[in-house]
Amino acid sequence: MITDPATGSLKPFDFEHILEYIPDLNQFDIQIDAASFDTPVDSSDIGIPEWIKLVTIIERKYSEYDGFVILHGTDTMSFTGSALSFMMQNINKPVILTGSQLPIGMIRTDGKENLITSIEIAADKFENGKPKVPEVCIYFENKLYRANRTFKYNAEYFDAFASPNYPPLAEAGISITYNYKHIYYPQLDKLPAFFKKMDNHVAILRLFPGINKDFVKQVFSTPALKGVVLQTYGAGNAPSEAWFLDELKKAIDNRIIIYNVSQCRAGKVDMDRYHNGKILRDIGVVSGRDITPEAAVTKLMFLLGTGLGHREIKELLEKNIAGEISF
After folding, report:
1. Sign, Cα dihedral of 227, 229, 233, 237
2. Is 324 helix (H, G, I), strand (E, B) or coil?
């Protein structure tokens, strides 16, 4: 974002002018090219069409560049990063999303350091020429994360993102330290695959004490609904009241996939630990293990968009396909 001098409000930044705001980029001994949407997009307006555009740009330019850095608003960055990790599989080049908490034109902006270091990481290679971090990542406030493990947890300070269930892939201080054992290196005998179909017939149902039957019923009555991310308590627990379980069972019988994701930001769903969790497992609710809600929604959209069968989608939801859940 930059500040609109006429109104004082924040407006999307035109990336074509990035070198004017960050002339330090000219000091890199690498070729840096910029591309931007015809109309810059506020991150709160980001959705499937923009994800497809990003994938299309990277696919078209994939053989021409060693790495890609995406400047993105923070509000939906974890959703976009998660989506791209599913839509671009077996890539062997860095795709790093970054942004800022303060507008790029402000003196104290964090955007300059975030962008400069993101570009440095995207261009960094081993002696054999292979990239050090061939993943979809988010870089923010000195840390590089696997994108589909993150969520935005802070709207006031520079450390906007967290990844409690997976360690940083790199940390930037005086030098950049890479956590190699936690970085995924793709099988080179497999070609990169780019997917451009996402199915948004999904919903999120976050449980709370005193939740209303009519509300739950209304969610599951959404036209053309195919999947629901059910945000449960703790290790995957939910009310055991008959009406609630009946609504879940009716939805499952109607081939609506229910994906159990914990409201806790750290830890995992374990439907074998408590009685109420076992009830969910027994009626056919699918475990999300330690996936984030952001990754759960985009994974569900991705799998529904592949055209795979109902049973296969449910099986893949419980498996790691892009580093989004622990093995």
Report:
1. positive
2. coil
Taking CA atoms, 139 is separated from 2, 70, 111, 125, in Å, by 20, 10, 11, 17
* CATH code that applies to domain 2-194: 3.40.50.1170
Q: What are the residue ranges of helices labelled H in 124-274?
A: 213-220, 242-253
Name which of 16, 29, 96 is nearest 58 in CA terms. Answer: 96
How many CB atoms are closer than 10 A to CB 10? 14
Residues in the chain: 327
Q: Domain locations in the chain?
A: 2-194, 202-317
pLDDT in tens, 76-116: 999 999 999 999 999 999 999 998 877 766 767 777 888 99
Number of neighbouring beta carbons within 10 Å of residue 116: 17
Q: Between the CA of residue 38 and those of 15, 17, 50, 186, what are the distances in Å?
A: 10, 13, 12, 33
Query: Which amino acid type is present at position 189?
Result: D
Q: 202-317: which CATH topology?
A: Rossmann fold (3.40.50)
Q: How far apart are CA 121 and CA 48, in angstroms?
A: 27
Quick one: CA torsion of 76, 77, 80, 82, rounded to 10 degrees?
A: -110
pLDDT tens profile 232-271: 999 999 999 999 999 999 999 999 999 999 999 999 999 9
Q: How far apart, in whole angstroms, are the C-alpha atoms of residue 179 and residue 314?
A: 32
**pLDDT tens column, 34-46:** 888 888 888 999 9
Which residue is listed with tokens 């149902």? Answer: 205
